[in-house]
Design goal:
Length: 137
């Protein structure tokens, strides 16, 4: 129990590197703009923009290719050629397809007493928290 109490302050300092503490609440990437606003209140300042990003996905494309197969002649007169038949083989490959998608970017700035932080949202979700050490030190 004593070990846990000794380690607790260290663990709390580590979480501040990737999270923001607003009172008793912990704000982490993945939370919505609404959740962060409820926990931390209005930011000291903010900026908003839209940008286009290229997204690439792999789409499977398949093609059937005829493959002739020659079968030996059935029992009958000599000299008769085999009857060709056709089998189809299907070959599939992953083809990259790129397209542009709009992304709504919003940055909220909080002047935290220890280190000011910028919260980066994309399409309404918190993506990452940037500590702004250079403004404080």
């Amino acid at each position: 129990m004593k070990l846990l109490l000794r380690c607790l302050p260290v663990l709390l300092m580590v979480t501040d590197a990737w999270a923001l503490r607003c009172g008793v609440w912990l704000v982490e990437p993945g939370q919505s703009v609404y959740e962060v606003g409820q926990k931390c209140g209005d930011p000291d300042s903010s900026e908003r923009r839209s940008e286009w990003r290229v997204q690439t996905v792999l789409q499977q494309q398949c093609q059937s290719i005829p493959e002739p197969v020659y079968q030996p002649p059935a029992a009958g007169p000599q000299g008769q050629a085999g009857q060709p038949s056709v089998n189809y083989r299907t070959f599939c490959t992953a083809v990259p397809i790129s397209f542009s998608v709009p992304v709504d970017v919003e940055i909220w700035y909080y002047d935290d007493p220890s280190v000011p932080k910028a919260l980066h949202f994309e399409n309404g979700r918190l993506v990452w928290i940037e500590p702004l050490w250079r403004l404080r030190h």
